[in-house]
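Input.
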Amino acid sequence: MTDLNIIYIYCDELRIDALGCYGNKYAKMKTPNIDRIAEMGVKFENCFCNSPVCVPSRVSNLTGLYPEDIGVYHNEAAHSRFHLDRKYDTLPEVFARNGYKTANFGKVHLPQDLYRDEKGNTIFQHSNVEGSQMMHVKKSDLKNMIAPQGFKTGRRMSIIGGRFPKDKPYPPENVTNNALEWLKKESGPYFVRISYLQPHTPVLTPSPYDTIYKEENFPKTIFYEGELSEFEQRFADVVDAANMTKEEIYSAQVYYYGLVAWIDAQIGKIFEFLESLGQLENTIIVFSADHGVSLGENGCYAKQIYAPQVHRVPLLISGPSIKSKQKIREDICESLDLPKTLFNLVGIEAPEQFKGRDLFSSIPPEAVYSTIGFGYSSSFTFPMRLHGNYLEGNGWPRRACIRTNEFRLDKTVRLNGKPIQKIKEDLFLVNWKDDPKEIHNLSRDSDWKDILEKLSIMLDEHILNGIEPPEEYVYLTK
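Output.
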């Protein structure tokens, strides 16, 4: 085992085109510090999250398990009344057993059974969530914000663009400050996750980052291209972006990308700290996110779907133990690959529980998988709670997705807690290599029948025997 330190920078709802190293067709992104990680190490172009929503994606990232393996399909799993069927191992616990000091700063958002033991100890030896509560901004607080914009999501306002007041301290900066204070006092080896809520809603961008993109040529209208699955179309209908003004559509992008530039400044502080102590050469740095986000594509905002701006996530890894001739990797990978990759980089044997692969020593898989599940429109799990029903009076479905090097297939696999009839699978098949926007549904084209059948069988096999949480957990209403 080596004595390398690991700093894992984890963001929420960060799409790859917010980073200069991945490129943006409308503007040059101002993220020099994040780009530096790519320059120092390896950039993965085609990494996909295992669920396009917070809790199940975060669970997969820490356990090396798919949602089906642990029975976590949406954010209901973070509810205090939700319980897992058994104890599962996690990334930081494996590091701790192998002599690492482990810490988390910022957002957690995990099932309580996974995050804490019966004595109240967390999976990290040290955990400080200060600065991660921005998402709980109340309506009464909006008067303190400048020009908030957003669409209604049930009982709360989801602010997709606004300025944070200049005369107030910006709470998320505590995530960085607390992490650096802890690191000053600790010697290695350590595994530290610095977990920012940003750029998740509420998108309230502090000065000067709220204006750095105000002159860019971002779209001012919602573009509708190609076809959508019934699921995506209904989700777009509920979001109701058609009522947004041109200024709101434009400003939402200015504030979002500006908030990512704020994150980049935090990464700059981390680099400065490591260099000041001479630790940079002995530290593995990872940058990633739990999922991406839509910014108006085909009428969608937020996450929840398998469109590329949501499903694809950044993954950058740098460090002295990385022996890779390729600076840019095009092969497909998934978020749950990270545990095995980090274990192998420092010489730790991965426990049997952890699926996925070591990204630097194994061959690419034939496919990667992702699943997201919902309840009724009144359920705790439903992101647009009390604001929109699904089709024909049904609860919102569970959708599963398979991706290969060429194709994406997603379909409804359960509805109202039961397996779906074939006729209602709402198939969506794209050749994403030829159609990078993923807007042309090939599922009804007979030329693609064999591909559709093959991928559908593979996806069915993947979800077979998945753990089903009790219905009272999935349909929690309080």
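Residues 146-156 have pLDDT under 50 and may be disordered.
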